[in-house]
Specification:
The complex is a heterodimer of chains A (115) and B (109). The radius of gyration of chain A is 14 Å and the shape is globular. By secondary structure, chain A is an all-beta fold. The chains are: A mainly beta (115), B mainly beta (109). Chains A and B meet through strand 10 of A and strand 5, strand 9 and strand 10 of B.
Chain lengths: 115, 109
């Protein structure tokens, strides 16, 4: 496998469910990201991990809980979500450092619908 | 505040040229990115500009004017497969990306 892979591609859940989104990058990058993409809105950065350490948490509600067990894997645990959380959740990775532009490599996203 | 502006939607004809504009206001500046996103797919990197001027890459070119806080993406010899959303993003002084809402480009035969 190459690039950034996300599972599941589609997820429907009720407001009381617990589910997790998974992301895996095969690019040897040192940073991973979760973004939320809603229709006609800019990408919203949710979490950033550099070398497995969380460096950004953009005021994301606690019903979203990230986990980064190693530099290749990233999870987003979901619990008691709201209908307004329905969106496309994109995972991305990049190589952060002086010689790099910080170009992001995205997965194809997990389309989440909260009923 | 930090802000990116780009048109919501544009329409162009197959074989023609289209220019998608982007203006930005950021705290510091470390470059301007353009990404392409087809419906239901991942955004993919198109270009990165950090110095003023035009960068050409095949049918696609990207221009930057730092003094004006302005960039554009130029697509030549449009093909139907160019129908997609084009995302503009500026990197601020903290190396954080500030994203525009994207421009949906519709190509007509």
């Amino acid at each position: 496998e190459t690039g950034v892979t996300q599972t599941p591609r589609h997820l429907v859940m009720g407001m009381t469910n617990k589910k997790s989104l998974k992301c895996e990058q095969h690019l040897g990058h040192n940073a991973m990201y979760w973004y939320k993409q809603s229709a006609k809105k800019p990408l919203e950065l949710m979490f950033v991990y550099n070398f497995k350490e969380q460096t950004e948490n953009n005021s994301v509600p606690s019903r979203f809980s990230p986990e980064c067990p190693n530099s290749s894997h990233l999870f987003l645990h979901l619990h008691t979500l709201q209908p307004e959380d329905s969106a496309l959740y994109l995972c991305a990775s990049s190589q952060v450092g002086r010689e790099n532009t910080g170009e992001l490599f995205f997965g194809e996203g997990s389309r989440l619908t909260v009923l | 505040g930090q802000n990116i502006d780009q048109p919501t939607e544009m329409t162009a004809t197959e074989g023609a040229i289209v220019q998608i504009n982007c203006t930005y206001q950021t705290s510091g500046f470390n470059g301007l990115f353009w990404y392409q996103q087809h419906a239901g797919e991942a955004p993919t990197f198109l270009s990165y500009n950090v110095l003023d001027g035009l960068e050409e890459k095949g049918r696609f070119s990207s221009f930057l004017s730092r003094s004006k806080g302005y960039s554009y993406l130029l697509l030549k010899e449009l093909q139907m497969k160019d129908s997609a959303s084009y995302l503009c993003a500026a990197m601020d002084s903290n190396y954080q990306l500030i994203w525009g809402a994207g421009t949906k480009l519709i190509i007509k035969p």
